């Protein structure tokens, strides 16, 4: 089960996809160019061209980004898709109240009755409102957002733009608007500090309209909510608006397929070895799953949720912390579950080897440049 179709196979074998389909037909396999082929069919065709399919397929699998993208595409066509929670990043100018809002949400809406509410600091957490979940990325907004984007990891569905009602639009407010717009991520405006003496939400709204963030009252389609992260005023309303926006976006995932996800943060723990906070995006991640994470590999050993509780599986949009990797991955690395540990290991090792070679080549370049500089 490699998710390869006649088109992909054609590319690998340097043949037209139509020729592959015809070849398959002659071999008794009815398919079209887009349908996923099973291992036997792939091997049959490859053998026809005198090629060892296993080696080729392995080569193909070491391209983790490509595998990740294919699974993402496949899940969009799946019949098993169900609604998934939105993934939200809070952005805004310094001191406008991002941390206060995140902390309030974490403490008032993240309650765990059984575990007595021990909150774990992992890179993201989920909030429950009226039995719906929302995932908040709890990493410094701008950095997380732009680093992820630079590496082609787009995990945010919605940006909540926090603007202080007593301060208005500031440089980082504009920066955040630009980031969100170029990523085509919808913005919900949270005008914060409504309790502050100088609060002037009307003025802030007018300022934001210049950046094409226009509230419904003025004929636009941007959601505005006036809140106070400090007193909690209208914070529930903000959560409701996030759910509304998510409904419009029809965010879905297929929990049945093998998991893919993205690393939020990773570190080395003294007692537990490499630890990665990650977001599951499609499929369900299970304890024991063989995985490749960037240039690392392993098996999910212990999986912990945002409340520090051990879990056996993680469904789409769920953030978890995992152990069991051979080394520390990087943030924004892609996670792909494999069928067996042997393949995960060899793909991981191959990728680490390639990365090492790449870095050596870069070093050589630098030394040559330096050499010429000194001449
Ligand atoms: P960040 O830099 O965006 O993370 O901002 P912080 O959350 O650290 O908040 C900056 C300051 O604004 C802190 O002193 C907060 O207590 C204060 N603050 C945050 N939200 C509110 C609010 O809703 N009302 C008032 N009056 N102060 C707030
Ligand atoms: Mg902060």
From TrEMBL:
Ranges of residues in domain Tr-type G: 83-252
Region (G-domain): 86-234
Compartments in which it is found: Cytoplasm
Ligand binding (GTP): 92-99, 138-142, 192-195
TM region(s), chain numbering: none
Recorded family membership: Belongs to the TRAFAC class translation factor GTPase superfamily. Classic translation factor GTPase family. IF-2 subfamily.
Function noted in UniProt: One of the essential components for the initiation of protein synthesis. Protects formylmethionyl-tRNA from spontaneous hydrolysis and promotes its binding to the 30S ribosomal subunits. Also involved in the hydrolysis of GTP during the formation of the 70S ribosomal complex.
Official protein name in the record: Translation initiation factor IF-2
Residues of the full protein shown: 300 to 674 of 881
């Amino acid at each position: 089960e490699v998710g390869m179709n006649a088109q992909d196979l054609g590319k690998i074998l340097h043949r037209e996809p139509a020729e592959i389909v015809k070849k398959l037909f002659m071999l008794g396999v009815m398919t079209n160019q887009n349908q996923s082929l099973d291992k036997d069919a792939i091997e049959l065709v490859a053998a026809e061209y005198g090629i060892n399919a296993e080696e080729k397929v392995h080569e193909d699998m070491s391209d983790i980004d490509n595998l990740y993208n294919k699974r993402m595409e496949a899940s969009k066509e799946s019949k098993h898709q169900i609604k998934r929670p939105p993934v939200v990043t809070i952005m805004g100018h310094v001191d406008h109240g991002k941390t206060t809002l995140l902390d309030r949400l974490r403490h008032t809406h993240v309650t765990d009755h059984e575990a007595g509410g021990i909150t774990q600091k992992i890179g993201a957490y989920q909030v429950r409102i009226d039995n719906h979940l929302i995932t908040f990325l709890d990493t410094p907004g701008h950095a997380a957002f732009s680093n992820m984007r630079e590496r082609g990891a787009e995990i945010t569905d919605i940006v909540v733009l926090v603007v202080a009602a007593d301060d208005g639009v500031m440089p980082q407010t504009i920066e955040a608007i630009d980031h969100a717009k170029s990523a085509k991520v919808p913005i919900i405006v949270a005008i914060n500090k409504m309790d502050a003496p100088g609060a002037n939400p009307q003025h802030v709204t007018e300022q934001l309209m210049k950046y094409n963030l226009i509230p419904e009252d003025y004929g636009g389609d941007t959601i505005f909510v006036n809140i106070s992260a400090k007193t909690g005023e209208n914070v529930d309303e903000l959560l409701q608006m996030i759910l509304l926006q998510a409904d419009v976006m029809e965010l879905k995932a297929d929990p049945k397929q093998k998991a893919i996800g993205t690393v939020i943060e990773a570190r080395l723990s003294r007692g537990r070895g490499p630890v990665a906070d990650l977001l599951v995006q499609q499929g369900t991640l299970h304890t024991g799953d063989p995985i490749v994470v960037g240039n690392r590999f392993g098996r999910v050993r212990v999986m912990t949720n945002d409340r520090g509780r051990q879990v056996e599986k993680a469904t789409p949009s769920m953030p978890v912390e995992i152990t069991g990797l051979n080394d520390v991955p990087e943030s924004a690395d892609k996670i792909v579950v494999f069928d067996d540990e042997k393949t995960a290991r060899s793909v991981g090792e191959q990728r680490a080897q390639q990365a090492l070679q790449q870095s050596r080549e870069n070093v050589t370049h630098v030394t040559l440049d330096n050499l010429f500089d000194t001449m």
